[in-house]
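Try this one yourself first.
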């Protein structure tokens, strides 16, 4: 049996193969746009709220809807256009809500349906759209469907899940992303094994069954009728499966996603979802995951195919998940490659962080007190000036950092605990393992929002469900609000700039000097408007020689007070980020 961390290694190998396997495609990195199809979900910046950690209104230590309502003005002040909120449905919370027991009910931790409606109206009144997280690759084992499915093979809900009848013998081995024991578990009452791609408590739903699909569309319609504007489809590339459940053969690491999901039928289901929900309700959908390559990704978001509107891929997330970090050349290569592939057709999300990764500044910037402000500003400049829809994870508009959690006792995340058990069982060097977990764990990104310098950073008046980062007195909203040079105000300037300059949304992208070891330089161009983006990814000053420097007209944004342009040479200070308009 291949253990979980071996699997993680395989995934990393896949990513590396993808990076280097496609190098020949990057010879020509100029992209062109073919007419503008203006859409709110392309132009806006999306802000992700992890509701459990945003703001607690009732002192129980968990963030809730009323806490979010209290902060609507703050959210509006960011200049973002849409919210994506992580799941808040009824759930046993085995995976913090990614295990849904009732898709139409609110978990009491977050409030009531009335609270939800008031919060939604608060967003609508401010012109902010709302994107719901739809977790329908799997449900919770406490969902009524699964509870009834367990009772008998004759129950109609039995066919809502994937089963292996025990009389056929042991099921073929299947990896699970959260369970070292594998992806099948036995149920005595119906003498069958059920499949779970994630935890044991997250049985996979059977998308090959039209009745199940119809139930999901009804759930989406229920929320669309309440006024939500979009859906994020969780782990969706796994939804359609080969129901002979073939074993994962050695040497097929590259095909991991194809092997377990991404069947051709997925496109039919998405097309059906489009006809049933997306088009009639005028909503949009974004899939977590973009399949196993450009072809899959294109098919998912090709407007002519009427499936999804946006996809997000993980190529650059993998490169930063270990303390060894990444090379700037890889970073440029991945973004340029994906941009080129989508220059004619389709649309991507641009993100560097979310609830499944440690903090942005730790992975891609420099969290030291000296550089965290400028390096976060530089990364936010990148996110908001690249082609695609920027996704900003809450707290990254402040430069919130990883929390130091050196011992396993503090971890509550199913993924972290599973990895720990597996490492222990394999006799790994646990000191090294804990260092890696401390750096890469997604729990780093789930600590409470830092509002001010009062106790618990103003997140709660009770005991927070997760310890607040001890740096909250140095990094918080109150401190940054009135400081024109703060990460927060730089973020606000960037969202504003993106609204004012359509070139930052739709302009073509061209990478300049791809070999430069410290500076990421690119242009965006739309009709007569031309913008030069210069980002120093290093803690040292650096300079670059560009013919474009001679045609600079205006500085649009700069995270330092000055720029240093001499002829065709531009010098940048550590982590300096500048946008120039040029002829
Ligand atoms: O994540 C899907 C996914 O691909 C995970 O492997 C993810 O990379 C992993 O959680 C990182 O530790 C989605 C959600 O975003 C995640 O929070 C859920 O835990 C998961 O689905 C199961 O629903």
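Now uncover the answer:
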């Amino acid at each position: 049996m291949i253990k979980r961390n071996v699997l993680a290694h395989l995934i990393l190998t896949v990513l590396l193969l993808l990076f280097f396997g496609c190098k020949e495609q990057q010879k020509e990195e100029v992209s062109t746009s073919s007419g503008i199809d203006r859409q709110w979900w392309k132009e806006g910046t999306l802000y992700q709220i992890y509701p459990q950690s945003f703001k607690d209104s009732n002192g129980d230590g968990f963030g809730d809807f009323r806490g979010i309502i209290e902060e609507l003005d703050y959210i509006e002040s960011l200049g973002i256009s849409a919210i994506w909120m992580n799941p808040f449905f009824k759930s046993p919370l085995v995976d913090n809500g990614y295990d849904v027991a009732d898709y139409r009910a609110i978990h009491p931790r977050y409030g009531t349906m009335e609270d939800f409606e008031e919060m939604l109206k608060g967003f609508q009144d401010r012109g902010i759209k709302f994107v719901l997280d739809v977790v329908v690759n799997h449900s919770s084992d406490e969902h009524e469907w699964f509870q009834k499915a367990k009772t008998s093979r004759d129950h109609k809900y039995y066919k809502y899940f994937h089963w292996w009848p025990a009389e056929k013998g042991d099921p073929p081995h299947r990896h699970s992303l959260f369970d070292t024991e594998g992806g099948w578990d036995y149920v005595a009452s119906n003498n069958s094994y059920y499949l779970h791609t994630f935890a044991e408590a997250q049985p996979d739903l059977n998308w090959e069954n039209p009745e199940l699909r119809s139930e999901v569309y009804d759930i989406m319609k229920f929320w669309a009728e309440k006024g939500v504007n979009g859906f994020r489809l969780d782990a969706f590339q796994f939804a359609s499966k080969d129901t002979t459940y073939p074993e994962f053969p050695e040497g097929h690491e590259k095909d991991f996603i194809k092997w377990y999901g991404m069947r051709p039928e997925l496109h039919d289901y998405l097309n059906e979802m489009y006809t049933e929900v997306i088009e009639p309700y005028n909503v949009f959908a974004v899939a977590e995951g973009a399949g196993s390559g450009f072809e899959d990704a294109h098919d998912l978001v090709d407007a002519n195919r009427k499936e999804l509107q946006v996809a997000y891929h993980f190529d650059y997330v993998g490169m930063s998940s270990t303390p060894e970090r990444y090379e700037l050349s890889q970073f440029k290569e991945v973004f340029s490659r994906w941009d080129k592939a989508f220059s004619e057709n389709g649309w991507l999300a641009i993100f560097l962080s979310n609830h499944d990764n440690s903090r942005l500044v730790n992975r891609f910037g420099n969290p030291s007190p000296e550089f965290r402000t400028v390096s976060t500003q530089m990364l936010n400049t990148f996110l908001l000036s690249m082609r695609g829809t920027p996704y900003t994870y809450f707290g990254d508009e402040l430069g919130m950092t990883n929390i130091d959690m050196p011992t396993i006792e503090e971890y509550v995340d199913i993924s972290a605990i599973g990895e720990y058990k597996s490492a222990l069982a394999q006799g790994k060097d646990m000191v090294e393992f804990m260092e890696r977990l401390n750096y890469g764990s997604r729990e780093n990104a789930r600590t409470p929002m830092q509002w001010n310098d009062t106790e618990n950073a103003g997140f709660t008046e009770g005991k927070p469900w997760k310890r607040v980062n001890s740096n909250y007195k140095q990094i918080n909203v109150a401190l940054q609000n009135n400081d024109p040079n703060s990460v927060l105000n730089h973020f606000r300037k960037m969202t504003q700039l993106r609204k004012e300059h359509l070139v930052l949304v739709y302009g073509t992208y061209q990478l300049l000097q791809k070999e430069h070891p410290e500076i990421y330089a690119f242009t965006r161009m739309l009709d007569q408007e031309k913008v030069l983006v210069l980002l120093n990814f290093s803690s040292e000053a650096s300079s670059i020689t560009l013919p474009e420097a001679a045609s600079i007209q205006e500085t649009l944004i700069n995270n330092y007070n000055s720029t240093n342009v001499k002829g065709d040479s531009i010098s940048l200070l550590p982590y300096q980020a500048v946008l120039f308009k040029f002829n």
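Discussion: Residues 144-195 form a domain with the Oligo-1,6-glucosidase; domain 2 fold (CATH 3.90.400.10). The CA atoms of residues 453 and 474 lie 8 Å apart.
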